[in-house]
Predict the 3D structure of the following.
Amino acid sequence: MSERNFSRRRRGGMRFRPSGGFNQNQKPDRSATEARAAATGEKKPEALFERTRHDEEIARAENIAAGLPPEGEPPPEGEAAKEAAPREKRGAFRKPNMETPEEVSEEKFQPVPLQSKPPTLIDKFKKVIKKLLPKQDEKTHKEIIINAESLETRIALQEAGRLEEFTIERNTEERLVGSIFKGKVRNLEDPLKAAFVDIGFEKNSFLHYWDIVPTSFDSGVEVVERGENKPRRERPRITQRDIPRLYPPGSEIIVQVTKGPIGTKGPRVTTNLVLPGRFLVLLPNSDQSGISRKIENPEERQRLKKILREINLPEGMGVIMRTAGEDQQKRYFILDLAILLEQWNEIQQKIKTQPSPCCVFQEPDLIERTVRDFLTEDVSRVVVDSTAAYDRMRTMISRINPRAANKIQLYNEHQPIFDRFNVTRQLENAFSRQVHLKSGGYIVIDETEALVAIDVNTGRHKGGHSRDHDSTIVRVNIEAADEICRQLRLRNMGGLIVLDFIDMKSRRDQQAVYQRIKEGLRRDKAKTHVLPISQLGLMEMTRQRHSESVRAAVYDDCPYCKGRGKVKSAITMSVEIQRKLNEILKKRSRDDSDFRLRIAVHPTVLERLRTEDEKIIIDMEKRYFGKLSFRPEPTFHAEQFKIVNEATNEELANVGS
């Protein structure tokens, strides 16, 4: 065994735990108790999301409908299970790994210069005025880089040159999430409390009864009473008991896709329709209105509430003011509402005229969604390498905010745009299994069917020579928390996520890391829920999964290792070859003729057979009176070998082909 492997094994099972252990007199909080109960099975924990208290019930029904166990996919096996297992089952606590990691350099950011037109007189005048005005705090340079190609579109959001969000869309794939369909109810499953709706695809969509009953806003939206003088028309309240009567099999229903097909599950739909715009979200079937809680300035919230009450809405409809509406004038909201109402009228026309099943509204492509969702006031520029996409984006943004159209710039240099803006290198680093931190620590990310396991290691921290180990560990955990929030957005990982931070003695330090995670998740557009660090030292969280992760979209499992990430060793292959040779030699009839076998193997396996296992091969030849000749075959996979009878040229075995 090499010195490197020996040292790795020697410290691999060690776990670090600060002296004194956990405070035994500390009263555990409710969230930690629920996390332990979920792990030990002592009692059924409460649902994670307050808004949808029935998520667990819906998930069980969805799993049963897809032919899966009620609790979902079976737990991971092998290496993935080791990463996801509680640390009590993995041995003692971890010792900080002082192995030297990859260095992460930090340089002062300078925006990438682009070829531009000669400045006009107005540009020179603006430059002079800017110099005369008092200096303000410099904002972070935020830019959107768009690579539009024939088969796929990639969009990267960078802040001060650092990749913060990444989205990829294949032009050949259906844009399901957000699209509205006129479907037909195929059957109702009362035990599952679900309906299966045909929306024109091979798999029927899954519509749970809770997604038919009108719902109120979640915690991210504050309800705003519009205070209209005219009395509102009371709508009859729909309950689950009314659904079989309202939507019997064969009836038509208008639904919107909330989650695309993942694995064996079909798309999930709802009857609570939403039409997102630039600054508003139109709710055609709800008379409630609200404002995003991400707008935190109290004075700005009061101003927007006043605008919301003054907007003239059709009867029976509601709107939500998006975060992008902060600091916007009233006329922009009125214009955005007019565009959304025009869009809804077109949808209604299609509903009346087209037979079911059919798509009456398709979610816009990635280019249009970027203009709608990302092009906010704090974005300095948008750089796109396609002339067609450039013209389309300028046309779209000019309808809403003509001034913002000047932020869109065309990139026409010979170097690929992602290489020019250093996105390619950041993507390679971001999607590797091990992600290094500036401090010298690193995190390890394992994405499995059941959950995502993220492990934090100290590596060789720059403050590692300090005697204050506790503060060093907290600094690494804080930095890892920021990077984990970034990685969740970049990789679009969802479902159950388990974070294994380095053990911290102080409850105050644990709370600081927990708050850092919560702050980092605020900018995440997907709904998340996170629990404090449990007494097992693990932090559990969930992240809403609308579609498959970027890893699942970009990568396929290796056809050789079947996604294991490992291949059989040379000694294992040597044993298998010897076993097969023994079987073949024992079967042959004994005669005086020579029995010659030719074995083609991978060069690494052949090296093993010629050195360590040479005596075993010679003994086998003497025992069975045969002649064995081995030949290297570089084109073979490491687990492949072929055995041929030299006399007849008959292929006796071909394993791993």
Remarks:
- The longest strand covers residues 180-189.
